[in-house]
Write a structure and sequence with these properties.
506 residues; Jelly Rolls; 4 domains; globular
């Protein structure tokens, strides 16, 4: 084994390799696209205009499907997987139909936009009913004759954390059941031979052929549930709703034709908090089939270990916020791009200290602090953040300066607290000096930490191993390789590499 100075090159990150909870399937940023060259119908010609895809249908009285165009192309889909479509759009109001799939098979839904002249980002989660390659996402708006713009579109898929805990929300074993579930009068249900036997003897719409195999389930919004059943004698599509009346979380099993017992599974993300939900099955299947058992589960991801160096955090989803002061200034707590944010607006330039964002927190003299945050807004350079004594307003040191762009940027600045005649913690304050700034900015995910004494991976000499195993700080294995060069794919952050806590800085 040789000794070497370990260095890591900055390389592109594969989201699929790092984030086990969500992976990007396909995405496009039309603000960075020079021209549009995907399929579109004859009634409209999409063009890149003003940093977005511009759609203008001037023909009235069309069906929505008469105007359709691809926004993403060439990606793969998997049957039964939930996909989330997210789009940033301006100028469209109401429901925008979407279709996702191949030319041979597709499924769809709608993106729902509010009436506003501003940009808005909306998402919709749909469950795939196809497994195919070379798929496309199509927008359809033949019945809409007002111009609109699309800045970006993304498809992501959720994946359960492999290190998470599987929680059983409901389970029924029909071999021990004594009561037949609630069902419509058009079905015959009975308990026989250790199973629930379901018989439909006539062709009717599926909504007239439903039953509740499980009731009284508590489900939570944005949680992804897995419904699994052991079934025999059924073939085709078995629809379900995990929800309540008027609060539907719909999905579908695609069941192979087999006379043998088989386990089927489907996932659905709840759109509601429901204390007393039910699982409803319905199908136009004519004949008799059996169900041995059904269970509903979800995966809980372990909480991220608390950073011992963290002093304070704001706008991270913890409900903690801050404000500030200044003339010609407004401070608003808003949601921007699905992030909890401080929206700061300043209309008239003045002295640098005339408008300040401020956050109170304990500080300690002689300690170096690192402050990280995400910011976007009207572009500006060399913004200064400073430390103060909250009781006396005395200055205690400055952070390194940072810039603001019109796109989200992750910023990290550092500075040493230098409070004279102080020892130990005191009531401190950090201020952003924005008196010279004119415009609007959004600030989120603000964290202030004492500088870690963890050694940088680019600074330590190590006995070079023959194999590298990398875990996140949450304990999720993300890399297992004999090639040291693959470490270059890791973004900056803290990791456990071969059992040691290591910081990668780029």
């Amino acid at each position: 084994m040789t000794k070497s100075l370990l260095t890591v090159a900055a390389m592109a990150l594969s989201i699929q390799a790092i984030n086990a909870a969500e992976a990007v399937v396909a995405e496009i940023d039309f603000s960075k696209t020079e021209s549009y060259d995907m399929y579109h119908s004859d009634h409209v010609t999409p063009v890149i205009q003003d940093g977005a895809l511009y759609i203008n249908n001037t023909t009235a009285d069309l069906n929505f499907w008469d105007v359709q165009y691809f926004v993403l192309d060439g990606f793969d889909l998997e049957d039964g997987v939930d996909y989330t479509i997210t789009a940033k759009v301006k100028g469209f109001t109401g429901n925008l139909p979407i279709s996702i799939g191949s030319w041979d098979a597709s499924f769809g839904g709608e993106l729902n936009f509010e009436e506003t002249s501003d940009w808005q980002t909306v998402s919709r989660t749909v469950t795939s009913t196809v497994t195919a390659s070379g798929c496309h996402l199509t927008f359809q708006s033949g019945n809409y004759t007002t111009p609109y713009w699309i800045e970006s579109v993304k498809i992501t898929r959720e994946a359960d954390d492999p290190n998470g805990e599987v929680v059983e929300d409901a389970y029924v074993d029909f071999s021990t059941a004594t009561v037949v579930p609630y069902h419509s009068k058009n079905l015959e249900l009975k308990l026989e031979n250790g199973a629930l036997v379901v018989t439909n003897s006539q062709q009717k719409p599926f909504w007239e052929l439903q039953y509740h195999p499980i009731e009284h389930i508590k489900i939570a919004k944005d949680v992804r549930y897995t419904i699994t059943a052991k079934i025999k004698g059924f073939s085709g599509n078995l629809s379900y709703n995990l929800g309540s009346w008027g609060q539907d979380n719909n999905g579908e099993f695609k069941v192979n034709d087999s006379a043998d017992w088989q386990e089927i599974s489907s996932k659905v993300t709840s759109q509601f908090n429901i204390d007393d939900a039910f699982l409803l099955f319905q199908s136009e299947f004519v004949g008799t089939y059996e169900i041995a058992w059904i269970k509903v589960t979800h995966v809980e991801t372990p909480a991220e270990p608390e950073d011992p160096n963290l002093v304070a955090s704001f706008y991270t989803g913890n409900g903690k916020t801050f404000g500030g002061w200044g003339d010609n200034t407004t401070f608003e707590n808003v949601t921007e791009d699905d992030k909890p944010c401080l929206k700061f607006t300043h209309t008239t330039a003045g002295e640098y200290y005339a408008a300040q964002i401020a956050m109170d927190l304990p500080l300690e003299s002689g300690v170096e602090y690192v402050m990280t945050f995400d910011v976007k807004g009207n572009p500006a350079q060399n913004i200064l953040a400073s430390m103060q004594n909250a009781d006396t307003w005395a200055g205690c040191g400055d952070f390194s300066r940072f810039n603001i762009s019109d796109q989200w940027e992750s910023v990290s600045v550092s500075g040493t607290c230098q409070a004279e005649a102080r020892s130990g913690e005191f009531n401190g304050r950090i201020v952003f000096n924005l008196g010279e700034y004119v415009g609007t900015l959004y600030l989120t995910n603000v964290k202030i930490s004492k500088k870690s004494t963890t050694t940088s991976i680019s600074e330590i000499e190590v006995e070079e191993p023959e194999h590298w195993t990398v875990y996140t700080m949450m304990g999720i294995k993300i890399l297992d390789t004999n090639d040291k060069g693959e470490l270059g794919n890791l973004p900056a952050g803290l990791y456990i590499i071969n059992g040691k806590k290591v910081a990668i800085r780029k």
